Amino acid sequence: MSHDADVVVVGAGPNGLTAAAVLAKHGLDVRVFELAPEVGGGTRSAELTLPGYVHDVCSAVHTTGILSPAFRYLDLERQGLEWVTPEASVAHPLEAEPAALLEASLTTTAQQLGADAKAYERLLRPWVNAGARLFEDVLNPLGFPRHPWLMARLGWYGLGSARSLASRFESERTRALLAGCAAHSILPLESPLTAAVGLVFLIAGHVHPWPIAKGGSRAIGQALWRVTEALGGRLESNVEVRSLSQLPKARAYVFDLAPAQLANLAADELPSGYSSALVRYRMGPGVFKMDWALSEPIPWRDPECRRAATVHVGGTFDEIADSERCAFEGRHSERPFLIVAQQSLFDPSRAPSGKHTGYAYCHVPNGSERDLTQIVEAQIERFAPGFKQCILGRHQSTAQALERYNPSYIGGAITGGVADLRQFVTRPAWRWDPYSTPNPRLFICSHSTPPGGGVHGMCGLFAASSVLSRTFGRAKPRWRTRTSSGKS
Predict the structure, then answer these.
(1) According to the model, what pLDDT value does residue 438 have?
(2) What is the SS3 assignment for 40-56?
């Protein structure tokens, strides 16, 4: 049987592009279909407010991107991707005392934490000493770890909740810093595994400060596509794929889609039981996002906040926990936890000379259409008096608007679905190889597969590995860093 391509990839988000690039690197003929006019998915950038102001439409700060084995395997920096690194990963302003900063130095960070200094450094030191190679294990949850003792230790401390881990510390500064990192889980901070998320984000900040991409997050998707294009890959954009019948004939199809989207698209090609499992997959809370064109940098009460590209705005542990619980239970917080980014402080290309950009989002009930502009701006003003006077232009995106922008963000859920204990081991449905489906020609590579959300491309790398071995009988990519002895 003749084929128009070896592999067809549907969806040009970071994982779809990574899968395409890996497959093309292994000599396969790859065709990519994308609904939007350009590649990138959650890594696009645009002038959302005023001319000359470049805003990241979805993802902004790439904690795991710079540590990603997939991006290293594809050598994206050779393709023009340039990471911009702030002095500190996170600033966490507090009302009654100076901001807590997640510095690159573990010791420097610990020294800010008063009575918790020794406990904080003692807890994190073993993982931080392992360096970037630890993330080859963290981002490969289904593989045998290179650092089994450290991963077992991470499981021991991380299996519990962020609240239980916070009880180890005495100061509100330490607990707040942990809460802000753990809230990236988009789970109530009383939930299992939220401690692991908090620890991973803290460890990452000490291994390498959380970076932004020079010129906008779009640079990541563009670099990924350049790899594929240079190897003969072909792209068709502005194409809405409604059925498999409209796609070219291929030996394998890889989908960078939400589980329910795949179930709908391939209803006639998948067993009903598997399709039902995809439909039942829980997406979790959505987000409300804002972007601003600013006349000057955000005027934080504590100027140390300007040393970080990311600012966690939410106050104390209990305030952040209440905000995250509200979103998960279908309610809106009146004082939401905000993930704020101030990219133009470190990348002048983001705004006209002397001007700046601002970015923030909070977690809201899935599918929310509520405009939280006043609430979000008041929360920033709480820690940065005079912020509203700096605003030259603003752009709002409700959870529903984000789904319209990218239909894979069902209900505005941007991280591929609930990452609780149940779905941690069944993303997106129970299978030994979660990237495969019961149909041997169909594969899924979205961030609804392990290791989950974040711009790291690992879901795409593992899906491509599955295609190579299952469909083409080829060896899987050797993506792990080689040791000094030459072993992987």
Answers:
(1) 97
(2) CHHHCEECCCCCCCCEE
* Alpha-carbon distances, residue 4 vs 8, 431, 469 (angstroms): 9, 29, 21
Q: How many CB atoms lie within 10 A of CB 274?
A: 21
Q: Which helix (H) or strand (E) holds 254?
A: strand 250-255
What confidence tier does 194 reach under pLDDT thresholds 50, 70, 90? very high
Q: What is the mean pLDDT of the chain?
A: 95
Which of 87-91, 418-422, 478-482 is most confident? 87-91
- pLDDT tens for each residue of 70-117: 999 999 999 999 999 999 999 999 998 999 999 999 999 999 999 999
Longest CA pairwise span in the chain (Å): 71
Other CB atoms within 10 A of residue 249 CB:
10
Other beta carbons less than 10 A from residue 78's beta carbon: 10
396: which 2 tokens?
A: 């709002």
Count of beta carbons in the 10 Å neighbourhood of residue 152: 10
Cα–Cα distance measured from residue 428 to residue 383, given in angstroms and rounded to the nearest whole number: 39
Taking the mean position of all CA atoms in its chain, how far away is CA 258?
15
Does residue 457 sit in helix, strand or coil? Answer: coil
Which parts of 88-159 fold into alpha helices (H)?
A: 106-111, 117-130, 134-138, 148-158
Tokens matching residue 421:
């204990």
Give the count of beta carbons closer than 10 Å to the beta carbon of residue 421: 13
Report the interhelical angle of 194-207 vs 117-130 (nearest 10°).
70
Task: Give me the amino acid identity at 111.
Answer: Q
The pLDDT assigned to 2 comes to 64
d(CA 473, CA 466): 10
3 state SS of 379: helix
